[in-house]
Amino acid sequence: MLKVKKQMNKKIGVKILATGSYFPKKVLTNADLEKIVDTSDEWISTRTGIKERHISENNEPTSELAYKASLEAIKTAQIKNEDIDLIIVATVTPDMLFPSTACFLQTKLGLNSAPAFDLSAACSGFIYALATAKAYIESGLYKTVLIAGSEELSKFTDWTDRNTCVLFGDAAGAMILTASEENDDVLSVCLGADGSYSELLNMPAGGTVNPATVETVKGKLHTIKMAGKEVFKVAVTKMGIAAEKALVLAGKKPEEITLYIPHQANMRIIEAVAKKVGVTMDKVFVNIHKTGNTSSATTITALDEAIKTGKLKKGDLVELVAFGGGFTWGAAVIRI
Ligand code: COA
Question: Domain named Beta-ketoacyl-[acyl-carrier-protein] synthase III N-terminal: which ranges (predicted)?
């Protein structure tokens, strides 16, 4: 019989090295929107909590936002670009259908061999990317992983549809994670999806179901379509369930979490989820008033802001929770 010396493998932990974020310079206020569609600052503020959002320039693609957020994270992490073994970009607003936005980002970072791919999970994308990075690091396949949530929803918005155009904004956030023997900063992740809801939130054309034609362009089928009320209800339910499950998986009680960072889609959704989980709003991070819904960029840019503004200190526990098209949802408990 073949004698195999059994080696006790030490579990590989995941250390969060740094975060970064980037918002395009141009700001579009609710007052600006009043000049474009039949809406009012009062309606947008009370129904969504949004006051303004950032809009990217035409010559500033999604990979450029991801690049600027990544550079900040790399600088804070005090690593070299070459230390990155894997790049994942969560986005549903890529530079092109292919190559991936992650490949464009890789080139901008001056790298030419690190594997790079996009991840499509809409507004839950960053939490899916976090779970993926954790799995790659723990498996021993890659050591240092750059993940980004980068979106330019403004370029897929129907600016004549007041139901959607007031909601979205552009941004990117990035995080660097590395293998560690001492740290294990991603305590739990909980992901979910239900594709039977695809009709309620989607971008109908440009893929193989409706390839681009003059008619699809005329019909504005290359822009976001959403049944807001229906999405709202499922979002509250699924985010509540995911948040509770991730806490259980992490073995933590709600009161042990310093800060909850929910997806910033609607202030009323955030408040309803907090109520469901039994958390008071003083423990919930909100920046939707100045960002709008930036899809996969919301949780990571909010986390970055909470760290930069001193709302979080080393050792604090944070829960991220998100929901998006698909439907997809996810939550994660992490240590700063
Ligand atoms: N300005 C003024 N009025 C508007 C408006 C706007 N920008 N958008 C919609 N309205 C009107 C509607 O036409 C409707 O008028 P009617 O009653 O005469 O038909 C009325 O306001 C109410 O619309 P309704 O859709 O019921 O509003 P709501 O309270 O559900 O809020 C959303 C709409 C989109 C803000 C809300 O449903 C939402 O946030 N949904 C989820 C969004 C989300 O999470 N999306 C992404 C997940 S990642």
Answer: 117-195
Q: Is the CB of 330 under 6 A from ligand 1?
A: no
Mutate to test the pocket of ligand 1, among 38, 163, 198, 226 (most ligand atoms within 8 A of CB): 163
| Range 13-184 classified under CATH 3.30.70.330 | no
- Joined together, the tokens standing for residue 88 give 């994942």
Average pLDDT for 290-313:
98
CA distances from 213 to 205, 208, 218, 221 (A): 9, 12, 9, 10
Q: What is the mean pLDDT of residues 278-299?
A: 97
User: Which residue puts its alpha carbon closest to atom 3 of ligand 1?
Assistant: 39
Is 0.90 surpassed by the pTM of this model? yes
Residues 6+ apart with CB under 8 A from 206: 97, 212, 216, 221, 222
Establish whether 183 is a catalytic residue.
Answer: no
Choosing from 103, 123, 165, 190, the catalytic residue is 123
Q: How far is CA 9 from the centre of its chain?
A: 33
- CB atoms inside a 10 Å sphere around CB 184: 15
Q: Which CATH superfamily is domain 187-335 in?
A: Thiolase/Chalcone synthase (3.40.47.10)
Distance CA 226, CA 207 (A): 18
pLDDT mean over 115-142: 98
Rounded to the nearest angstrom, the distance between the alpha carbon of 232 and the centre of ligand 1 is 10
Residue nearest atom 34 of ligand 1, based on CA coordinates = 228
Coil/strand/helix, residue 322: strand
The 3-state DSSP class for residue 119 equals strand
Binding site membership of 311 for ligand 1 (Cβ less than 6 Å): no
Provide the pLDDT for residue 102. Answer: 98
